[in-house]
Write a structure and sequence with these properties.
Order of helices and strands: EEEEHE
Strand content: 15-25%
Radius of gyration: 12 Å
Largest sheet: 5 strands, antiparallel
Number of helices: 1
Number of strands: 5
Shape: globular
Strand order of the largest sheet: 4-3-2-1-5
Length: 93
């Protein structure tokens, strides 16, 4: 997906894959994450990455996602903070 097609804030539940050889991410190259709901205290530039078990384990900023990940599926989620949404659980096999 080209950067021109991506919104300024990647919506929660989007699916991203680490594709960079950047030393910060190289040991996780090929891993797939879902974008978690944003936290008001952290702001919209702090992207929480949710693993297959449903754990919010890592963060990146919007630019780091664009530079080091490929968006596999762009979510249509509109509630950025997940106020009225269920907690993101484990990913279905």
């Amino acid at each position: 997906m080209s950067n021109d097609a991506e919104p300024k804030v990647i919506p929660p539940l989007s699916v991203v894959k680490v594709t960079s050889d950047n030393p910060d991410w190289s040991d996780q190259k090929g891993m797939i994450f879902r974008v978690g709901y944003y936290n008001r205290n952290d702001g919209l530039d702090c992207v929480w990455l949710v693993d297959d078990n449903g754990a919010y384990g890592q963060t990146a900023d919007q630019q780091m996602i664009r530079n080091n990940f490929t968006v596999l599926k762009l979510s249509e989620e509109t509630d950025l903070f997940g106020d009225d949404r269920e907690i993101i659980g484990a990913r279905s096999p």
